[in-house]
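Forum > Structural Biology > Help requests

Title: Can anyone predict the 3D structure of Cytosol aminopeptidase family protein?

Hi all, first post here. I have the sequence for Cytosol aminopeptidase family protein but no way to get a structure on my laptop. I'd be grateful if someone could post the C-alpha cells.
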Amino acid sequence: MPMPLQFATDPDTALPLHVVASDDLEDWAASQNGTVGTWVKAAGFRAGLGEVLLVPDGNGAPVLAVAGYGTADQRARTRFALAGAAASLPEGSYRLVGGPDGATLDEECLGWLLAGYAFDRYRAQSGAKARLVAPEGVDASRLEAIAAGEALTRDLINTPASDMGPDQLEDAAAGLAAEFGARFEVTSGEDLLKKNFPMIHAVGRASARAPRLLDLAWGDAGPMLTLVGKGVCFDTGGLNIKPAVSMGLMKKDMGGAAAVLGLARMIMALELPLRLRVLVPAVENSIAGDAFRPQDILTARNGLTVEINNTDAEGRLVLADALAYAAETPSDLTVSMATLTGAARVAVGPDIAPFYVDDDAAAAAIAGAAARVADPVWRMPFHAPYETMIEPGVADLDNAPKGGFAGSITAALFLRRFAGAAPRYTHFDIYGWQPAAAPARPKGGVGQGTRALLDALPELLDL
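Reply #1:
Sure, ran it for you. C-alpha cells for Cytosol aminopeptidase family protein below:
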C-alpha cells in the first residue's frame, strides 16, 4: 500500500532540510560551518530545481539535507517545485529550513504530500517516501484533506473500465457518503425512465451495466452547492464509434465525476458550513442493438428535444438530465465538471481547465483562487451569438453542431439550457489526465479546477 498522504509527526528527530535557490547558494554555503561548505562544493551541488544533497557528519550519518530551489524563472515555469526534491530524498522525516513562505509555502507543502501518491492497484509501486513536518503557519489538516480528495480523484480515473463501470462508481460514491454520514440515493436501469431521466437512460441502455444517477447530499445548514459530474465510465463513441487512437484513454471519460467526488470529499472532511449535493449520471456508452442512433430525437427531463447528430457527443446528454434535475431544487451555486470536448484541449492544452460562467465576480473569484493554489484555469465565454449553432430546426437543440468551430463553447451553451435559473452556473471542461510525469503529478488521472473551486467557495458562497 502507498504511504498515506500525511505530514510527519516527529519534528524533534526530523532531518533539517535547507531550501536554497541557485542565486543564494554561495551566500548560504558561506553561512554554514566550514565542513558543510566544503562538502557542498566537493559534491558539485548547484541548487538546481529538484537537486538534493545529504551532508554527513564525521561518522557518515546525515546531519542536514539541502534541496535546490533553482532560479525564479524555473520556479515560475514549474508547479510544486519542491516536490521534485521530495521524490529524490531517501525515506525519512524532514523539516524545512528557509525557503518559501505564504501561499507558496502552502503550495509546496501540498505538492510534497501529493508526491507521495502512487496508483498501486495492479502493480506494487510507491511515491516519494520522504515525509515532511508541517511548517509553522501551515494548516496541515486542510492540506491533508485536499490531498486525500485529490488521491480519490486520481484513483477513480486511473482504474480501467473493467473495474470502474457505473456499478463500481456507485460503490465509490456510496462509500464516500457512508464515511461522512451523507445521504445517498441511486436511480438505475428502467427506473430512469419511470422517474424521467430519459437521456441518461438512452446513452447507457446499450451497455451490459445499467445506467444510473447517483445522488449524494450532505449538510443541513448554510448556502447550497450543487456539483454535477460526467460519469461516462467508458466511451466507445456509440454507433459513431471512435477510432482506436481516440478510444485509448476513454477510461478517463468519468473524470468529471471523479473530480466532483474528490471535491466533495475535501468539503466534507473540512466540514465547510454549507449544504452539498452531488449528482453523477453514471453510464457506459456502448454499442448494441438498442443503442441510440444518429438522427434520433430525444426529449430531455425538462422537455427540450435534442437531435442526435453524433452519438459520441453523449456526455452533454447525460449531464443535461442531471442539470435539469438539479435546477428543480434552488441552489446558490451549481457547477458541472466534465471531460467534455477535444476542442477545449486544442484551445488551452491538457494543463489548463477552461471554465464558463456569466457572473464576472464569480469568474474573478475562481481565477484568483486558481492563481493562489496553483490550479490553472481559464475563463471562456458563454458567447450568445453561437446559440444558433446548437439549434438544428427539427428539434430544440443539436447535440453536435456541424462545422467544427467553437466546440467547447457550443457544448457549454448546450448545458446552460438545462441549468435553469441557477445563480452563477459554472461549467468546467476538464481533461482529467496528466500526459507526462511532473512534480507531484505522475502520468495518469489528475484533478483539475477542484482546488481552485475549494479556495473560491468562501467568496462565492459568503462562507
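The mean pLDDT is 96. The chain has two domains: 15-129, 145-461.
Shout if anything looks off.
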